[in-house]
Amino acid sequence: MVLDIEYLGQRGAIGAFLIETDGGAAIVDPGPASALSGLRARLAEQGLGVADLEAVLLTHIHLDHAGATGTLVRENPRLRVYVHERGAPHLVDPTRLLASAGRLYGDQMQRLWGEVLPVPRDNLHTLAGGEEVRLGTRVLETAYTPGHAVHHVSYLDAGEGVAFVGDTGGLRLDNARVVLPLTPPPDFDLEAWRQSLAWFAVWRPERLVVTHFGFADDVPWHLAQLEEGLEDWVARVRASLAREATDEARARAFADDVAAELAGRLSADEVARYVAGAGLEACWAGIARWVRKQQGG
Fold this sequence. Notes:
By secondary structure, the chain is an alpha/beta fold.
């Protein structure tokens, strides 16, 4: 069940996912601490509280997905936290993670993300990809799925035909017929992302769950649209870097172009949600960083 945690009062921006099993309840990507009141409210609607949770499954450690984890563990010390092995050290000691985010968000950190507490090492169950996660009698497969982040994993519930694909699955709001990549710095990698999409195709889920936002049907179409979008955006960024301009101007022009194209397919309200959810100028910056690295810059 998708739980709309109403991040910053916005509906349909960040969705945690509740898995209920005979072995207790688990949450995939609980979101940031700034939205904990929304998470608690959605759990309460299902007759649950944080104390009823047995596990937290993280697709990756970005604050909009994992920021509340330490607070949840403080409240419920028996929580098992599943996370990729490259992300685990930053949960135990989030200093570098917060410093990196602070350079981007500055004095808005507290408002956007709330308190980010460390997760005790003993609560962590680290994943490389390929392991099974057992939740009662339900078994989830895992895969290492970088491209968006180097510490990204995805989970397949084969029995339910559902794959939890985090941000490697892109941005698709309310199952709309628009899929956008999410490519912020510093970890965007086109080749790695292609391999992750190929892995999703091998899994052949009936539905995807994307954190931004909700269930995504017609999986082959979704994956094809996402790969096409990635290729298109990389081509646009390459072209922009070949033109004389500042990075600020290049990023703004990229964002304006994408928003204008969305306006031809969506309502004004939907365009605003997609633009806010994607962070288009940051998407340009993530791809530009990767392109420059490829060029030896």
